[in-house]
Amino acid sequence: MSVQLPPKIALEEAYAHPEDVARILSSESDLRRSAEGGGVTPRYYRPVYERLCEFDEVRLGAMDAAGIQRQVLSLTAPGVQIITNPFEATVEARRQNDFLAARVAHRPDRYSAFAAVALQEPDNAVRELRRAVTELGFVGVLVNGYTNDGDLDHGRYLDSPAYYPFWDELCALDVPLYLHPRPLLPSGFAAHQDRPELKGATWGFGIETATHTVRLLLGGHFDRFPSAKLILGHMGEGLPALLWRTQKMFDLNPFDKKIEKSLPEYFADNIWITTSGSFSDHALTSAILSVGADRIMFAVDYPYARNGPAAEWIERAPISESDRRKIVSGNARSLFRLEEPA
Questions:
Q1: 3-state secondary structure of 111
Q2: What are the tens digits of pLDDT across the range 177-188?
Q3: Does 1 reside within a domain?
Q4: Is residue 46 in some structural domain?
Q5: Which of 113, 117, 130, 277 is buried most, with the most CB atoms less than 10 Å from its CB?
């Protein structure tokens, strides 16, 4: 007997501004540079980039075919985090949020949005976050890893004291931050320098984002901001499978750090993960055992991944129907306070 699933909500679904797409696709050198920055080949990137700026027949058709009722859209990586001029980053974040708000307003039944914020200017980032949530109706914010600080060789991570007012505002607004990957800083690239295949989502993205998250955890960030909500993609960037060993070795070697809870407790209280780009039965069942089905949400990583295979996988994954319903939409509806579809 077949079971009717509720419509899916997909949470890590990228877009790019049409003007930016047109500029990059009109120049082979710009396309190559953009592809190299993301650790992919131009041959792979061109058709992806063409889909990033489309919001109508192609995107909605792919959603319909996969039973996806809603996408939560976000600016594709590296977003505004890579802009080294603080003023320009702030202007670009507002430009992107205004554009995205207009796209969501055109189809509010199908789209929601994560805001872009320019942490290069923390005070302005607070104001833009507040505007995006309270005026534009966005459901949270997505940050693409570290924020470049003055040049491309240096970056600030989300536990920087300069960002404490930003986290205060996130907590006051009660919205989550989705931590999206970007490549390691050049200074951390020794093992990748002559191996471009390791740079992007194949390997480097997950390592960078997992390390960023462990930095927050072991530095006591969630003790400082106990109501903060963090979302990690790609089945938690491998962290659910590593929690036991990380906790064990930290207990033996805490250096000068002291945290109030165990790592699994922080995952229970502060962290959600999504299935974006990781459609593996083994990874999913391991994550359920490690962090629980209440903390897992469906995502595709469109257009970098395809809706169809993601939907087919979650529909047949060897988990309980109760857990499946939570993952495909129930947990997201609760976290983002979304109404059930009519």
A1: strand
A2: 999 998 888 766
A3: no
A4: no
A5: 117
pLDDT of residue 1: 40
Please, which residues bridge with residue 143 across strands? 179
Residue for token pair 């995952």: 267
Q: Are the C-beta atoms of residues 53 and 18 closer than 8 Å to each other?
A: yes
Query: 149 falls in which pLDDT band (50, 70, 90)?
Result: confident
> How far is the C-alpha of 324 from the C-alpha of 62, rounded, in Å?
21
Which residue out of 20, 159, 301, 323 is catalytically annotated?
301
Nearest to 208 by CA among 245, 233, 227, 177: 233
In a domain, 38, yes or no: no
Out of 34-48, 165-179, 188-202, 213-227, least confident range: 188-202
| Class of residue 186 by CB neighbours under 10 A (exposed 0-12, middle 13-18, buried 19+) | middle
Contact 200, 96 (CB under 8 A): no
Per-residue pLDDT tens digits for 210-220: 999 999 999 99
Q: What is the mean pLDDT of residues 199-210?
A: 83
Tokens, residue 335: 């976290």
Q: How many CB atoms lie within 10 A of CB 139?
A: 21
Between CA 52 and CA 13 the distance in angstroms is 9
Residue 284 three-state SS: helix
Percent of the chain with pLDDT over 70: 97
Edge-to-edge, what's the strand order for the sheet holding 8-15?
8-15, 68-75, 111-115, 140-144, 177-180, 230-232, 271-274, 296-297
Q: Is 312 in a helix, a strand, or coil?
A: helix
273 torsion bin: left (phi>0), alpha (psi -120 to 50), beta (else) = beta
Q: Residue 315: CB partners within 8 Å, gap ≥ 6?
A: 5, 324
What would the pLDDT profile of 121-139 be if each residue is shown by its tens digit? 999 999 999 999 999 999 9
pLDDT in tens, 304-329: 999 999 999 999 999 999 999 999 99
CATH number at residue 281: 3.20.20.140
* Residue range(s) defining the domain that contains residue 201: 8-17+53-336
Give kind and range of the element (H or E) at residue 148: strand 147-148
Tell whether 129 is covered by a domain: yes
For residue 64, indicate whether it is catalytic: no
Whether residue 303 has a cis bond before it, omega within 30° of 0: yes
